[in-house]
Amino acid sequence: MKLEFEMVPDSCWYSNLRSLLTPAQWDVVRKEAYARAGGKCSICGGVSARLEAHEQWEYDEKNALQKLKNVIAVCKSCHEVIHIGRTTLTGGEERASRHFMKVNGCTYAEYRKALGEATEAHRRRNRIPEWKLDLTYLKKFVKN
Q: Closest Cα to residue 73, out of 95, 50, 106, 104?
């Protein structure tokens, strides 16, 4: 699927790049993602006057390692799908489900199956009490 759910383990909530970097550092990272996107959502390809920076993480459950793999520019609709847990809490699940099905060209049953799989991964990752953080991705932004 082109557009997927990315449920962050509960213990990692609020530990995003904006909270770890200075505002100036975060601007460099997000603006680079916007430049790569060229005014289009990196997932659905829709043109957007206002893109949002999204951190993509990988989770190595065996080693309890949360690794930043990329920062991409996405439209608000794709970002709502990616963070479906938060979107559901704020009353936007129906809108997000429609966008998920449109972007992925899938049925509601396929949406529910993908959501169930993402929820199970989230439950599994929540069993890990503390994640180590790998921010190697950011090295390309550091000038020596």
A: 50
Q: Which pTM does this prediction carry?
A: 0.91
Burial class (CB in 10 A: 0-12, 13-18, 19+), 47: exposed
Per-10-residue mean pLDDT of the chain, 144 residues long, equals: 94 80 93 97 96 96 96 98 95 97 98 97 96 93 72
Q: Return the residue matching tokens 């998920």.
A: 100
